[in-house]
């Protein structure tokens, strides 16, 4: 059999360090929990090294056919681990010497582990298990501060997650029932002869759970409340990392399992994509709270990502473009949140007035990240957007590309509503000195987003490859 | 070589930020030195250009091979005049801004950034590269208007950004459609031109041209996409306006000639009449609305719409299948390119003069001035020269350009051309009226005459306009082979 634990080295590192961190944290004095933070960071670095070491290896599945090790999984690992490192950066000050500091790192690591599981799951049962592992720590992350707003957001998050977890399980059951297997490769062969209505029901059920993970319409209701209510570092993590798992898992489900069926899943995903980007943008238009604005903006970003899922398997640009966009989005979105984390005293757009005067580099990072989210060249998201638009047009979804272009133009409006006061003069006294780590993370992400764009050619070449298909 | 010319300003923009405790004085002179060096380099480009057809100084490197997009640069007779014009106008702005007090370091850095972007756009031979520079020009100009504009700058900048960004996205969709329809897929302009893959493409080709047309028409701008222009110009600082009108508007018309016409020749010919109509409407509407303005800067902004209209008319007429002779159509395209250069020089000068006017009076309102000629003779003289040049008086470059455009278009689109003639009459009226109000009549409050920096920045632009008006051959020799090859491509 192909039960090769070494293939899962990054996942094993994360799991082991999560447990070790929990134990270590309980023996350390409350004010000196930095070793746990260091351990978490080392786990990410170790996981990255283990992933990069096997990057070019041939595509394979391990543990039966349940877990794929291919470009999708590897890219998912890299993006998630980098995102966790950046999250550690933005949360360093917020949780330093907090009563439950080590628990925070452990929850983040476990959620990351579940998310990586989502990206690699090649079997419906493993997908559901990964969904649960990726969700449950996040409920605790959302309500970590134990304040009213955070608890409300966490409750909403939990209820929606529980509901869509059930539909996911039900959908998996239906697909198992008509397909005779839970492995994607078997489903691909079996679904062609299965009754289309049952396949459609099963697919919609499973897909709904993934939509919840990525925060897409109509499972997006938790995003704005959680981003506004929870602590900013938690919001940064919650709006970035779960999406990575959800999007890659949806792509894998579509490309590996559904391509054999006669259900027009691509059209369904395209409609969801259009609805997601449009509703996210419209809702973001007149937000005054920067976190809520960013929350809605992350919803609209998922819409662009889903465009690549809609043309999954139709052309060879779809997968690399989606992975590129995911990486670019993760860095840029965390950058915008890093600025928010660095200025915890400012909550509304108006409070950012005069930022350029007081914190020129932070303001510049904000401008780069927000324009990056719009997709202005030469940032990384531009390269991702360009390739995703190309893949979608090549896949025959011209109308979707037009909708996405209109949405991109519309999104500029609310990002500018935030940028404009930051550049203007005036504003009240500076509420707080910016946090060193969060500000540094903002600079790093802004620079990274600028550098990654012109290097998109290299990134796309590295992300080219097939998904495991057996 | 081209890469050096393009990226020198950007590299230089970093220097004032790298040196600790740099004075504003140093920044301004550094900016001037870099702009001058880059201008000299473009002159060298022109002088040392190898003869023959095709692109000079071509660079073609792999950039994003997955979507066959390359770092492909090159200049020919269409782009080289605009490259030199761009470097020259930025140099003029650097001289003009020697008195810039407000945040000089950021201002200089932004202008150097814009210079790189503008030069890059005119030499780009890859659609993605072109788009990157196209979009960045919008971002750069947004910060210029928002950061250094007048009272209502924030609103005008927002409108400018949103409006032109919509145009750039239409352009992006059009570019991607060109990529997808090409086989093998590519974003390379030269390769796409060679393939001519949408010949006889029916409605799909029409839609692609529509996307490109809207994108470039917003940037140009033509009626009915011009409404962002007057507020942007009115609120922008003088140097920003000069660059916006002199360089950024050319990106739209250049895009038509470089991308839309050669890549979609068949479709262009089919819909050429649309461009002729849009051109004539822009000419007349721009002139008439300019006549009704009391604000000096708004007036010049509308004359820009008028002048850009001539270009659209010319390139539309060049595509008309009517039995007009090849020579006539060649004249039209050459005239269009000449008009781009001429408009850049003259309107750049006019906007800098408008900045001087604002400096003296604190307003652009024509009715608030009078009799300035008595106290500021040099100012009055230069403004008179610029106004006469702009209305197309013989002896100035505008005459050469417009004469070629009219001669070239008359055969293909007689009615439209005759109507466009009226535009000249209206612009003549409005410039004379504005000049009379500000400089003649009974003397009002006296104003200081031009300073050295102002004079040195504005006068050379007008001298060049005169030189081009009297000895246009050296420019036409450069443009004519290129416009001939555009027409050959268009005739496929």
Write down the overall geometry of chain A: globular
Intertermini distance of chain B: 33 Å
Give the strand tally of chain A. Answer: 2
Oligomer: heterodimer
Share of helical residues of chain B: over 70%
Helix content of chain A: over 70%
Supply the helix-strand structural class of chain B. Answer: mainly alpha
Report, as a whole number of angstroms, the end-to-end distance of chain A. 14 Å
Compute the CA-based radius of gyration of chain B: 21 Å
Number of helices of chain A: 19
Q: Count every helix of chain B, treating DSSP H or I runs of 4 or more residues as helices.
A: 20
Strand content of chain A: under 5%
Query: Could you give the order of the helices and strands of chain A?
Result: HHEEHHHHHHHHHHHHHHHHH
Q: How does the major sheet of chain A shape up?
A: 2 strands, antiparallel
* Pair of chains with the largest interface and how many residues each contributes: A-B, 33 and 32 residues
Could you list the spans of chain A in which at least 5 consecutive residues all have pLDDT below 50? none
Beta-strand proportion of chain B? under 5%
Note down, in words, how this protein is organized:
- The complex is a heterodimer of chains A (470) and B (492).
- By secondary structure, chain A is mostly helical.
- Chain A has helices at 9-27, 34-53, 71-91, 101-120, 124-142, 148-179, 184-190, 196-214, 222-229, 232-257, 265-284, 290-310, 318-342, 355-358, 360-374, 380-394, 398-423, 436-452, 456-463; strands at residues 60-62, 67-69.
- Chain A has a two-stranded antiparallel sheet.
- The model of chain A has no long low-confidence stretch (mean pLDDT 91).
- In chain B, helix 2 packs antiparallel against helix 3 (79-96), helix 3 packs antiparallel against helix 19 and helix 8 runs antiparallel to helix 10.
- Chain B has a two-stranded antiparallel sheet.
- Chain B has 492 residues and is mostly helical.
- Chain B is 75% helix and 3% strand.
- Chain B has 20 helices and two strands.
- At the A-B interface, helix 16, helix 17 and helix 19 of A face strand 1, helix 5 and helix 6 of B.
- Chain A: Keywords: Cell membrane, Membrane, NAD, Quinone, Translocase, Transmembrane, Transmembrane helix, Transport.
């Amino acid at each position: 059999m192909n039960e090769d634990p070494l293939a899962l080295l990054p996942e094993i590192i994360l799991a082991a360090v999560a447990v070790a961190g929990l134990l270590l944290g309980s023996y350390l004095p409350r004010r000196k929990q930095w070793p746990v933070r260091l351990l978490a960071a080392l786990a990410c670095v170790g996981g990255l090294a283990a992933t990069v070491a096997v990057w070019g290896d041939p595509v394979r599945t391990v543990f039966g056919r349940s877990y794929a090790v291919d470009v999708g999984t590897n890219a998912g690992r890299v993006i998630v681990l980098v995102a966790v490192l950046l999250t550690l950066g933005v949360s360093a000050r917020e949780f330093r010497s907090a009563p439950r500091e080590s628990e925070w790192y452990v929850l983040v690591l476990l959620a990351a582990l579940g998310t990586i599981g989502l990206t690699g799951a090649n079997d419906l049962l493993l997908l559901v298990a990964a969904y649960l592992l990726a969700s449950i720590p996040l409920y605790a992350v959302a309500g970590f501060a134990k304040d009213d707003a955070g608890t409300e957001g966490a409750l909403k998050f939990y209820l929606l997650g529980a509901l869509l977890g059930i539909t996911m399980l039900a959908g998996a059951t239906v697909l198992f029932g008509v397909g005779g297997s839970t492995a994607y490769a078997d489903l691909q062969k079996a679904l062609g002869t299965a009754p289309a209505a049952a396949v459609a029901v099963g697919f919609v059920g499973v897909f709904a759970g993934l939509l919840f993970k990525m925060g897409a319409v109509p499972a997006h209701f938790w995003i704005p409340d959680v981003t506004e209510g929870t602590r900013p570092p938690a919001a940064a993590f919650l709006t970035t990392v779960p999406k990575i798992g959800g999007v890659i898992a949806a792509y894998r489900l579509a490309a590996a399992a559904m391509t054999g069926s006669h259900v027009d899943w691509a059209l369904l995903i395209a409609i969801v994509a259009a609805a997601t980007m449009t509703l996210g943008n419209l809702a973001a238009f007149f937000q005054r709270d920067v976190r809520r604005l960013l929350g809605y903006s992350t919803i609209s970003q998922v819409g662009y990502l889903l465009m690549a899922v809609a043309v999954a398997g139709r052309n060879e640009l779809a997968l690399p473009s989606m992975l590129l966009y995911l990486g670019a989005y993760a860095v840029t979105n965390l950058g915008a949140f890093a600025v928010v984390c660095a200025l915890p005293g400012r909550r509304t757009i108006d409070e950012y007035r005069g930022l350029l005067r007081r914190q020129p580099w932070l303001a510049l990072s904000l401008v780069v990240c927000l324009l990056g989210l719009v997709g202005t060249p030469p940032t990384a998201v531009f390269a991702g957007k360009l390739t995703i638009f190309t893949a979608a047009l090549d896949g025959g979804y011209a109308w979707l590309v037009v909708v996405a272009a209109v949405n991109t133009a519309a999104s500029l409006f609310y990002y500018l509503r935030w940028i404009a006061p930051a550049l203007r003069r005036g504003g009240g006294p500076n509420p707080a000195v910016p946090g060193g780590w969060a500000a540094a993370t903002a600079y790093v992400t802004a620079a990274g987003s600028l550098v990654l764009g012109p290097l998109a050619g290299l990134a796309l070449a590295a992300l080219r490859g097939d998904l495991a298909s057996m | 070589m081209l890469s050096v010319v393009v990226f020198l300003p950007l590299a230089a923009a970093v220097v004032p930020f790298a040196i600790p405790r740099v004075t504003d004085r140093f920044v301004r002179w550094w900016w001037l030195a870099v702009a001058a060096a880059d201008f000299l380099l473009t002159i060298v480009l022109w002088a040392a250009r190898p003869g023959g057809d095709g692109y000079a100084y071509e660079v073609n490197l792999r950039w994003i091979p997955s979507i066959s997009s390359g770092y492909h640069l090159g200049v020919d007779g269409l782009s080289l005049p605009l490259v030199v014009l761009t470097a020259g106008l930025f140099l003029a702005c650097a001289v003009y801004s020697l008195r810039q007090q407000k945040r000089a370091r950021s201002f200089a850095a932004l202008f150097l950034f814009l210079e790189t972007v503008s030069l890059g756009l005119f030499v780009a031979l890859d659609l993605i590269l072109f788009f990157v520079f196209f979009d960045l020009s919008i971002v750069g100009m947004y910060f210029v208007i928002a950061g250094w504009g007048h009272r209502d700058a924030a609103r005008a900048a927002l409108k400018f950004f949103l409006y032109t960004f919509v145009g750039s996205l239409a352009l992006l969709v059009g570019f991607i459609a060109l990529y997808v329809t090409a086989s093998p897929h590519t974003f390379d302009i030269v390769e796409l031109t060679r393939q001519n893959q949408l010949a006889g493409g029916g409605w799909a080709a029409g839609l692609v041209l529509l996307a490109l047309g809207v994108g470039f028409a917003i940037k140009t701008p033509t009626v009915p996409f011009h409404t962002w222009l007057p507020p942007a110009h009115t609120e922008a600082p003088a140097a920003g306006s000069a660059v916006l009108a002199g360089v950024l508007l050319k990106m739209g018309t250049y895009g038509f000639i470089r991308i839309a016409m050669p890549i979609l020749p068949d479709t262009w010919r089919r819909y050429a009449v649309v461009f002729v109509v849009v051109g004539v409407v822009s000419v007349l509407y721009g002139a008439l609305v300019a006549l009704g303005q009391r604000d000096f800067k708004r007036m010049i902004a509308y004359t820009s719409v008028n002048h850009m209209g001539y270009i659209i008319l010319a390139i539309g007429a060049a595509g008309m299948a009517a039995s007009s002779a090849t020579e006539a159509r060649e004249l039209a395209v050459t005239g269009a390119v000449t008009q781009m250069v001429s408009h850049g020089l003259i309107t750049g000068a006019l906007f800098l003069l408008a900045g001087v006017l604002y400096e003296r009076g604190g307003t652009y309102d024509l009715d608030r001035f009078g009799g300035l000629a008595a106290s500021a003779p040099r100012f009055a003289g230069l403004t008179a020269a610029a106004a006469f040049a702009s209305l197309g008086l013989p002896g100035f470059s505008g005459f050469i350009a417009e004469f070629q455009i009219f001669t070239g278009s008359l055969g293909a689109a007689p009615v439209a051309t005759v109507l466009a003639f009226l535009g000249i009459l209206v612009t003549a009226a409005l410039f004379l009226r504005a000049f009379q109000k500000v400089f003649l009549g009974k003397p009002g409050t006296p104003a200081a005459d031009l300073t050295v920096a102002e004079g040195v920045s504005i006068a050379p632009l007008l001298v060049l306009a005169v030189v081009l008006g009297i000895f246009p051959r050296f420019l036409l020799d450069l443009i004519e082979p290129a416009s001939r090859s555009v027409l050959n491509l268009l005739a496929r």
